[in-house]
Amino acid sequence: MPLLLTMLAMMMAGQDAPPPAAAPAPTSTSRPRPKGMPQTWVTNDDYPLLAMLVQAEGWPSFRISVGADGAVTACNITTSSGWSLLDTRACELMRERAEFEPARDAAGRAIASSWPSRFRWMLDMEAQAPASWTRLNRFTFDPSNTLVGCAVQSAGPVPGYTNPCGWLQRVRTVDRTQLLGENHGGAVIEVRESHVVDGAEASAIPAGVEVLALIRLRYTIGKDGTVSGCTLVEARGLGQAGDPPRACPSRLRYFAPADGKSHRVTSMRAVLRLRLQPQQPVKQPFRAGPGETIT
Questions:
Q1: Does the residue 91 lie in any domain?
Q2: Measured between alpha carbons, how far is 245 from 59 in angstroms, rounded to an integer?
Q3: Which of 118-122, 200-204, 229-233 shows the lowest per-residue confidence on average (mean pLDDT)?
Q4: 3-state secondary structure labels for all residues of the chain
Q5: Range with the lowest mean pLDDT among 139-143, 180-184, 209-213, 257-261?
Q6: Do 237 and 167 fall within a single domain?
């Protein structure tokens, strides 16, 4: 955390309709046409922060209502990703950014119509060692919601480490609001990750903290490093909708175990919020990661 992201926007007009004929009759009714490239309507920065931090993925399908003036009038999820947070964000982006030439009737008049499509919320992940590890990122915000402290504590061969302080300073205001809430006064945000191979369950959440998002998984690492049998054990904060959500990230992979055996993994990722007490700011008891400074 944070991870290199790949947003695969599969914006396919009419995906749920039969393919059009090579040369439609002049009297046929046309469909709305996107202005420009729909893939540009979604960027890596749009991945919902809480979903990204706990590695939640999904492929929502939706239908955009387009008015006779080409304006988007509505967006409705037709097949859920399994996570309400991802579904909601998908339609928010379509309402904000989608642009169309309107559909036209047989006489060439602009008419209201709709445009079905889908895309993937998906994370690009590096292969990791099949070994146990833990990591804790702690971010301290003052009452003005300014990031004033950052610390990292880890043990084991933690994958994909990058500079969390510099990254968090660049996240969108709406995502910071998700982390800090509407009630100002300062807060400590913890991102806890636990990856246990052939051992006890991943660590429990401490009492007295607010869980913003959490995903706990169990799965098997095969002899060749592939992942199978992934089960979603627990989820909080993301809102489950429709069919069961995708449990393991689609690009989760490992190096082949050196012992040539399969191994069982329990993993947990959680985003927690602790409120600062004005009379006693939270101290930073953790060592800084590479390139980090505790203030």
A1: yes
A2: 9
A3: 200-204
A4: CCCCECCECCCCCCCCCCCCCCCCCCCCCCCCEECCCHHHHCCHHHCCHHHHHCCCCECCEEEEEECCCCCEEEEEEEECCCEHHHHHHHHHHHHHHCCEECEECCCCCEECEEEEEECEECECCCCECCCCEEEEEEEEECCCCCEEEEEEEEECCCCCCCCHHHHHCCCCHHHHHHHHCCCCCCEEEEEEEEEEECCCCCCCCCCCCEEEEEEEEEEEECCCCCEEEEEEEEEECCCECCCCCCCCCCCCCECCCCCCCCEEEEEEEEEEEEECECCECCCCCCCCCCCCCCC
A5: 180-184
A6: yes
- Domain identity same for 266 and 158: yes
Q: Are residues 73 and 120 in contact, defined by beta-carbon separation less than 8 angstroms?
A: no
Residues 42-86 have pLDDT tens digits of 888 899 989 999 999 999 999 999 999 999 999 999 999 999 999
Full residue range of the structural domain in which residue 219 is found: 133-275
pTM over 0.85: no
Q: Which of 90, 124, 158 is a domain's end point? A: 124
pLDDT at position 18 is 41
Name the domain count of the chain: 2
* Residue 209 token pair: 């903290």
Q: Which of 124, 152, 186 is the last residue of a domain?
A: 124
249 part of a folded domain: yes
CATH (domain of 39): 3.30.2420.10
Could you tell me which residue, 94 or 199, shows the higher pLDDT? Answer: 94
- Interval 183-224: pLDDT, tens: 667 889 999 999 999 987 766 787 888 999 999 999 999 999
Asked if the model's pLDDT at residue 265 lies above 80, the reply is yes
The whole-angstrom separation of Cα 81 and Cα 205 is 26
